[in-house]
Amino acid sequence: MVPLEWYLILAAALFCAGLYGVLSRRNAVAILMGVELMLNAVNVNLVAFWRYTEPAAVTGQAFALFVYAVAAAEAAVGLALIIAIWRTRGTVTLEEIDLLKG
Amino acid sequence: MTTTLLNLAWLIPVFPFLAFVIVPLVTYRNRKLSHRLVVGAIAVAFLLGQIVFWTAVTAPEGVLPFESESIHWLSAGVERFKLAVYIDPATAIMLFMVPLVCMMIFIYSVGYMNFGTDQVDPRYSRFFAYLSLFATGMLGMIVFNNLLAFFIFWEIMGTCSYLLIGFWYEKKYPDPNKITPKEAGLKAFIVTKIGDLFFMLGLALLYAEVGSLAYGDIFSHETLEHLATTGFLGTQFPLAAAIALLLFGGTVGKSAQFPLHVWLPDAMEGPTPVSALTHAATMVSAGVFLVVRCFPLFAAVSEFTHIEPLHMTIVAGIGAFTAIFASIMAVAQDDIKGVLAYSTISQLGYMVAALGIGAYVAGAFHLITHAFFKALLFLSSGSVIHGMEHGHHHAHEHEHEEHEKEWFNPNDMKLMGGLAKRMPRTFWPFLLGGLALSGFPLFTAGFWSKDEILAQAYTASPVVFWVLTVAAGLTAFYTMRQLCLTFAGEPRTEAAKHAPESVPSMTVPLAILAVFAVTLGWAGIPDHFPVIGPMIPNWFEHFVGSTIEVGEHAAEHAMKVAGHLSEGGHETHSQLPLAMGLTAALGGLAVGWLVYGRKPLRAGQMDPVEAAMRKVWLGWLYDAMRNRFYFDELYQATFVRGSIWLADVFDAFDYGQPQKMEVEGQVVIVRKHGFVDGIVNGVGSIGRVFSDAASWLDVNIVDALVNLAGNAGKFASIGLDRFDFKIVDGAVNGVGAVTKAAGRPLRRIQGGLVQNYLLIAAIMVLGLVVTFFVIIFQMPQM
Q1: A16 CB near a chain B CB, below 8 Å?
Q2: What is the helix, strand, coil percentage profile of chain A, to 5?
Q3: Is B565 a residue whose pLDDT tops 50?
Q4: For B206, which of B354, B416, B515, B712 is 20 to 30 Å away at the CA?
């Protein structure tokens, strides 16, 4: 059987890839994709820990499903926001969206 | 040996899948390599499919249904789903048909996407990748042993269908009412999802009751008996019938049965090979295959109880109605692919009706023969469309730009005519396919499968029989109409006059498919057919009918319950259905010839049927037929509008109704009085009242006090002025300067860029993690 650590390393790598995407991409849509990647890394962790520590319970899978649902909602809201921003400001490049500037 | 070869079946979907992965990732820049990979993968799948098919056919008694060793596939808690290869006769014949048709269509696609165009489609490689994924879906659905895998692959196909229908998503038509590929893809996806929802509910119900979705478990004798004798939710309605109806919901969506038929005609917006592949030959028949696959479940009620099998009546009714309904609409279509689309719906209705009356072998037979001749018809029509497009280009090459701008519909049969001479290698396969579709006697495959369905319908249900016979007559009629309009007579436009023949990579698959469209019927000549019947064994029925014994019994039983079997338990073989089938096919073709073939349509002439109907004040009926009996409009007005209305309600709930107001001579849209907005504004106005009161207090009382104090202070301050200027000001300025100095670096952090905030957050978290670890690792030393 594949040791647990491998899954954790995979999840960590996935998380880092997502984080890198979130921090480095300029396009808001790409950033959302990065966020999805990070959420999925969490899912890998949840399922891996479930499988290796408590396979009789379904908690890990159930939580992964919750994360999916939340991620779907997040993507929907995020895309709606991006569309709204696109309509008002004509851009989805985050560098040009700095209304919060202090 | 046999089992070793059958074990190969799991490899069949793997190769197209590999091609799907490799093409978009690695080879997408190289078009030739991409299509070669995809065609090569399906060729391997085809070879494997043939191996498995012939092994299954020659397998000794008792090997089928074959189930390979299973692998753990999915765990949920302590439940384990297992995946294995499952081969029974139905699988085997599908493995014969699907890879073969797919391969022909893939080869044709290479010609179709390259032929004559100056610039190759920019998404060329992607197109082939989608095709390959589609083949994966279809093949995977066939070979595996449980309904969950079936559902997953079924959905893969649905996704591919969406992607491929909308493949030319940037295409727009000058007529705003004409559906665009993008909309058509969306429509197909959403409409079929309605059916899939029922399918999924059926799966959930089945799983909740049986605890497994593997065919071996759910089709076992005990399970079926349990399902048939248990009531659904405590009612008399058998659970098996409820599950069967829910699963049938999936069929209604996927196989475009009434009332979810609306997506299929619009699916013709995709490239023609796609129409042939997914909306004629394979994907739509997946719905029928689902019923074939689950037939023991459908038949369980009549097998184990004496309850009237209501669900079977519903299935047969929907099938028969769809068959005649769609063939009526097909008569009034001018789009060459439109006619074929409606005929596909109609033929699928045939299959479903056959399944509904218990003739699942006949239904499966028609499924196979139909796949071949419908793929053939679609591919030939694609060749015709290509010819028309190039003819149009050629004819208008040297003319003014005005002609270029005018939109030309290469699908319109009214603009064709006389193409038999221009494109003979397209015409002959088309003719054979058309004859097979109309059930031309003896030498076409369509005749044998249709005859089989009619014969069984006659013994099972006279109503279904007559409806199907009329539909068969209409089918022959509109097929003849299509043949005459497209190929006979003189060219009606310049484009038709200049249409070139297509390249061999398109016409050779046509020829191969044409061979199957003719010969395949000989595998299923019924034993009771006069003269030939006893001579040639009905191989198909023996093979497919042999192993699903439950179904066999149930079909017989269903007929017995319905009182259509004679006392001895033997079917009475009347020759009436055969005679009626022959009359319908030949009569339809003959009438079609009289109307359209004898005096070919001239350019600009009205369709004779339309003219005749207008003469007797039935023009409205013809319009209704052409406009699909306004079902699209009905759904638009109810479901689509309904959803939009609901969205508007919520929107208004939030923001309020939009109102036009004039502000400084300009009309602006202002939205007021929304519920959520109202709450927000209400909270705001309460705050405002408070602040107004505070403001009043401030101005009238506090200010007065302050002024008073100020005046008092003023006098005092004169003396203190110096002190103030030097020390207090100094302190205040000092504080200000310190704050400003401290704020400067902090201001940079607050740059308004979300990503910077995130970066800071990430660094903080990292810092916390590091701190945490340091503390933990220092613990023992403490």
Answers
A1: no
A2: 80, 0, 20
A3: no
A4: B354
